[in-house]
Design goal:
The chain is α+β, with helices and mostly antiparallel strands and about 260 residues long. The chain is built from four helices and twelve strands.
C-alpha cells in the first residue's frame, strides 16, 4: 500500500476513535444526571460546546494537510462553533473587564485565561480593559481564529511584502477598522499575520483565540514591532521592538464550561 494511503487511513481511524471516545463520554455524563432532575440532552450538549470546539479545531489542524473538500467541511464546522459560543459559555457572565489598576499594575493589565493547548493548537481568552492595547505583534507561520465575544476593538493589521528579516521588513496595511462583537477574524500565516488591538468599549472586551500551531519560544516566538513610515503611503517599515514598560499580561482563572475529556 502506498505510504500516502497508509497515512490517510491511519488518520481516518484516529478520527473515528476520537469521535467514539467523545460519544461514549457524552452518553456516560448524561447517564450520571439520571439521579437528578434532568434538564434534557440539549442541556448536556450545550455544556459540551468548548469540548466540541477543541475537537473541531483538532480535526481541522492536527492531522496534517487535508484534501480541499475535507478542509472546507471541517473549517465550516469549526467556524460554526466559533460563531455559536457565547460569553456565558466561557464564564463571562458580567461581560465587563476590570478597568481599575489590578494585579499590582497600573494601568490595569490585559488578562489571559488559558483553556487548552497541545502541540498543534492553543485556546484561550484575552480580556482587554478599556483603552488597553495588545501591541503590534506577529504569529510566525501560524493561523489565528479570533472571535470577539463582547466589546469593541480597534484592529490594525499588516502583511509583510516579502519574507521578513530579523531586522524587520516592509509591509502593507491589511486592515484598519473598528470591530464589534460577535466579529470573527482569521489571521493567515502570511496575509494579515500581524495585528494590533486596542479596546474602545468602556466595559472592556473579550476575545477568544485559537492559535495553530501555538507559540514556541525557540521556533515560533512572538515578536513586537514598531511602525515607521516610508515614501510610499501604502507601505510601512516594521522594526522589531520591545513592548512599552506599562504593557502587562496577567493570567486569570477560566470559569467557563470545562473540557469534558481527560485526553483530547
Amino acid at each position: 500500500m502506498h505510504f500516502s494511503r497508509v497515512f490517510y487511513v491511519v488518520h481516518l481511524l484516529n478520527d473515528i476513535m476520537f469521535e467514539l471516545h467523545f460519544f461514549f463520554f457524552f452518553q456516560a455524563e448524561d447517564g450520571i444526571r439520571d439521579a437528578q432532575e434532568s434538564r434534557g440532552l440539549g442541556d448536556v450538549y450545550k455544556r459540551q460546546i468548548v469540548t466540541r470546539l477543541v475537537i473541531a479545531a483538532r480535526r481541522l489542524y492536527s492531522h496534517g494537510p487535508l484534501q480541499p473538500e475535507a478542509f472546507q467541511a471541517r473549517q465550516k464546522d469549526l467556524m460554526a462553533l466559533v460563531t455559536e459560543i457565547t460569553p456565558a459559555d466561557l464564564g463571562l457572565q458580567k461581560m465587563q473587564v476590570p478597568i481599575q489598576p489590578s494585579f499590582g499594575f497600573e494601568p490595569a493589565p490585559v488578562l489571559y485565561q488559558h483553556i487548552y493547548d497541545d502541540d498543534s493548537l492553543s485556546l484561550g481568552i484575552f480580556l482587554l480593559p478599556h483603552q488597553a492595547t495588545l501591541p503590534l505583534h506577529d504569529h510566525p507561520d501560524m493561523t489565528v481564529v479570533s472571535r470577539l465575544v463582547f466589546g469593541d476593538l480597534h484592529s490594525t493589521g499588516y502583511t509583510f511584502c516579502n519574507e521578513p528579516e530579523p531586522s524587520g521588513g516592509l509591509a502593507w496595511r491589511h486592515h484598519d477598522e473598528r470591530v464589534t462583537a460577535p466579529h470573527v477574524a482569521v489571521a493567515e500565516p502570511v496575509e494579515g499575520n500581524l495585528h494590533e488591538l486596542t479596546c474602545t468599549s468602556e466595559n472592556g472586551a473579550a476575545m477568544l483565540d485559537i492559535l495553530t500551531p501555538p507559540y514556541e519560544d525557540d521556533q515560533r516566538p512572538c515578536t513586537y514591532f514598531q511602525v515607521k513610515p516610508t515614501d510610499d503611503d501604502q507601505v510601512v517599515r516594521l522594526l522589531p521592538t520591545l513592548p512599552s514598560a506599562d504593557f502587562n499580561v496577567c493570567h486569570s482563572v477560566y470559569e467557563g464550561y470545562a473540557l469534558s475529556l481527560i485526553h483530547i
